[in-house]
Amino acid sequence: MKPIISPSILSADFAYLANDIEMINGSEADWVHIDIMDGVFVPNISFGFPVLKYVAKLTEKPLDVHLMIVQPEKFIPEVKALGARIMNVHYEACPHLHRVVQQIREAGMLPAVTINPATPVAMLRDIIDDVYMVLIMGVNPGFGGQKFIEHTVDKVRELRELITVTGSEALIEVDGGVNLETGARLVEAGANALVAGNAVFSAPDPAEAIRALKNL
Ligand SMILES: O=C(CO)[C@H](O)[C@H](O)COP(=O)(O)O
Predict the structure, then answer these.
(1) 4-214 CATH, one of 1.20.1260.10, 3.30.2350.10, 3.40.50.620, 3.20.20.70
(2) Catalytic center at which residues (predicted)?
C-alpha cells in the first residue's frame, strides 16, 4: 500500500497560499494537513479559523486538521464548519481524551490523537480502539523545517505492534522532519500516512516532491 501523503501548508508561502493550494489540488497528495497553533500549547502561532475558512473553500482534498492548542474540544464546531475529515488533538492537551475523541466522532469527524516526542506509545493503549489515527510527532511541535528525532522510527514500530496485538484499525501518521530518507524508514516501520512541510514546499517542484513521497 502506498503511503497517504498530507502536505503541511505551514511551510507554504502565505502570501501566495492560493497557488500552493492549487498545486496540492493538482498533485498526488491525499489530504491537506492544517496546523493550528495557539502560542500556549506550542511556542508559535500559525493561523486561525477566519483564514482557514478561505483555505477550506479552495481545497479539494480532505482536510487533516492538527490542533496544537490547549482545550481543543472548544473548537470542535469550528473545525467541523471547515468541512474537516480528520481532527487531530494532542494527548498532552487533553486530560479527558476519551471524552474529546467521542465528541469529535459525534460531530461527524474522524478522531486522531497526536503524541509529542517525549510521550511514550504505551500511553495510547486505552484509547487505541477508539481512534481513526494516531499521529506521532517526529519533532517537537511548533515549527516546520526541524531535524527529525530518530527514536520516532522505533515509536512507529512499537505502535504498529500495539495495533496488531489489540486488533485496532488505527492508522499511523508521522509529522515533522519527514523527507524521502526518513519517510522510507517510517513506511518500512509501519507508518500509513506522512505529513511533509519543508520537503514539499522547499523543493524546486513541490508536486514532484509529493509524487516521490507517494511512491516510497
Ligand atoms: O506540525 C508541524 C510543526 O509543529 C508541521 O506539520 C511539521 O513540522 C511539518 O513540517 P516539516 O515537514 O518541515 O517538519
Answers:
(1) 3.20.20.70
(2) 35 (proton acceptor), 175 (proton donor)
Q: Give the angle 77-56-67 at the CA atoms, nearest 5°.
A: 50
pLDDT digits (tens, 9 = 90+) for 22-73: 999 999 999 999 999 999 999 999 999 999 999 999 999 999 999 999 999 9
* Set 20, 30, 35, 64: catalytic member: 35
Q: Give tens-digit pLDDT for 168-213.
A: 999 999 999 999 999 999 999 999 999 999 999 999 999 999 999 9
Backbone angles phi, psi at 100, to 5 degrees: -65, -40
Indicate the domain borders of the chain: 4-214
98 is in an annotated binding site: no
What are the pocket residues of ligand 1 if the criterion is a CB atom closer than 6 Å to any ligand atom? 8, 10-11, 33, 35, 66, 139, 141-146, 175-178, 195-199
